[in-house]
C-alpha cells in the first residue's frame, strides 16, 4: 500500500486539481465555441453543395503551425492527434463522409492511419486494393479513400483511374507532419472527388504515358524537382506516376520527358497535395529536462 500523503501535500493536490478542472472546463467551452463558428462556416462555404468539407491545404497549414508552436513535456503526437480528431470531427459535421481504405498490405496500419487522421466518428470501410478504393470514392457523394503511394503497382497503374474528367483525384499526402516514430507513420495518399478551387497545389501528381523508358530519365527529371513514384507496363509502353513542384509547368515536364525517353509523352494531372514537411528528430521528442527518469 502507498504511504498516506501529508496534509500539506493533500492541500496542494486539491489546488492543482482545481486548476486542471478550470483548464478542462475552458477547453470544453472553447470547443463548443469552435462548433458555433463551424455552424456559421457551413453557410459561408456552401459545403453541402460541394459534397466535401475537406480543405487539405488549410489543414496542412494548421498542422505545421501546431508543430511550430509546440513545446514542453506533452508529446507532439498527442497534440497532433487531438487536433486531427477535432478537425476531422468538424469536417464530418459539415458533410458526413466515410473513409475507404486499401488493406491489401494489411488492415492494421491503414486502420491506425484512418483513426489517427480522421478520428473514430468517421466510418472506416476496407477494400482489397487501390482500384476498389478509387471506384468506391467515385460512386460516393463526398467520401475519401486512402492507400499507400506504392500501393500494388504490380497489379497495374491505379493512377490511370484518376485521369478522366470528374474522376477522383489525389488531394493530400499524410501524415502532414512526417517524422521518425510518428504514431501513424504509414505514408498515404488521400483521394476524393475533385475539390475544384479547394485543392492545394504545392506538389502536383502527373500520370505520364511514355513509349519507352530510359534509366537516365530520372536524372534528367531531378533538376525540375520531379520524381517518379510509380510505374507500370501498358500494352503500348509505360505509365509512370510523377510528383513535381506545382510551380513547374506541364509543358516543361513534357519536353523533358520527350527528350529523356526519345519518344512521345502524354501527360494528365491526377491530383496535388501540400509539400511534404519533415520535422528533425530532436523536435519531436518531449523536452528532455521534463522527461520522467527511470
Ligand atoms: O477552414 C475550413 O474550411 C473548415 O472547414 C474548418 C476546418 C477546421 O475544423 O478547422 C475543418 C475542415 C477543413 O478541412 C479545414 C478546417
TrEMBL record:
<dbReference type="Pfam" id="PF01817">
    <property type="entry name" value="CM_2"/>
</dbReference>
<dbReference type="InterPro" id="IPR002701">
    <property type="entry name" value="CM_II_prokaryot"/>
</dbReference>
<dbReference type="InterPro" id="IPR036979">
    <property type="entry name" value="CM_dom_sf"/>
</dbReference>
<dbReference type="InterPro" id="IPR036263">
    <property type="entry name" value="Chorismate_II_sf"/>
</dbReference>
<dbReference type="GO" id="GO:0004106">
    <property type="term" value="F:chorismate mutase activity"/>
</dbReference>
<feature type="domain" description="Chorismate mutase">
    <location>
        <begin position="7"/>
        <end position="98"/>
    </location>
</feature>
<dbReference type="GO" id="GO:0046417">
    <property type="term" value="P:chorismate metabolic process"/>
</dbReference>
<protein>
    <recommendedName>
        <fullName>chorismate mutase</fullName>
        <ecNumber>5.4.99.5</ecNumber>
    </recommendedName>
</protein>
Amino acid at each position: 500500500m502507498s504511504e498516506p500523503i501529508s496534509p500539506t501535500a493533500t492541500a496542494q493536490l486539491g489546488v492543482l486539481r482545481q486548476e486542471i478542472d478550470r483548464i478542462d472546463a475552458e477547453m470544453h467551452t472553447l470547443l463548443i465555441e469552435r462548433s458555433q463558428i463551424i455552424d456559421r462556416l457551413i453557410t459561408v462555404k456552401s459545403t453541402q453543395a460541394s459534397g466535401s468539407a475537406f480543405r487539405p491545404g488549410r489543414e496542412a497549414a494548421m498542422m505545421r503551425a501546431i508543430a511550430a508552436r509546440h513545446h514542453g513535456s506533452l508529446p507532439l503526437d498527442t497534440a497532433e492527434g487531438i487536433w486531427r480528431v477535432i478537425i476531422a470531427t468538424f469536417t464530418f459535421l459539415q458533410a458526413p463522409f466515410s473513409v475507404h481504405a486499401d488493406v491489401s498490405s494489411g488492415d492494421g496500419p491503414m486502420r491506425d492511419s484512418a483513426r489517427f487522421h480522421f478520428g473514430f466518428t468517421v466510418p472506416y470501410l476496407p477494400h482489397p486494393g487501390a482500384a476498389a478504393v478509387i471506384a468506391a470514392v467515385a460512386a460516393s457523394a463526398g467520401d475519401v479513400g486512402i492507400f499507400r503511394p506504392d500501393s500494388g503497382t504490380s497489379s497495374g497503374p491505379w493512377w490511370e483511374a484518376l485521369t478522366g474528367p470528374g474522376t477522383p483525384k489525389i488531394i493530400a499526402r499524410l501524415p502532414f507532419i512526417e517524422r521518425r516514430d510518428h504514431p501513424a507513420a504509414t505514408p498515404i495518399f488521400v483521394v476524393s472527388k475533385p475539390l475544384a478551387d479547394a485543392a492545394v497545389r504545392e506538389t502536383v501528381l502527373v500520370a505520364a504515358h511514355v513509349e519507352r523508358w530510359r534509366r537516365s530519365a530520372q536524372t534528367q527529371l531531378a533538376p525540375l524537382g520531379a520524381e517518379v513514384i510509380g510505374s507500370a507496363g501498358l500494352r503500348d509502353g509505360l505509365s509512370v506516376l510523377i510528383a513535381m513542384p506545382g510551380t513547374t509547368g506541364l509543358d516543361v515536364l513534357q519536353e523533358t520527358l520527350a527528350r529523356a525517353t526519345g519518344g512521345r509523352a502524354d501527360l494528365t494531372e491526377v491530383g496535388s497535395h501540400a509539400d511534404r514537411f519533415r520535422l528533425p528528430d530532436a523536435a519531436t521528442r518531449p523536452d528532455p529536462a521534463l522527461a520522467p527518469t527511470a
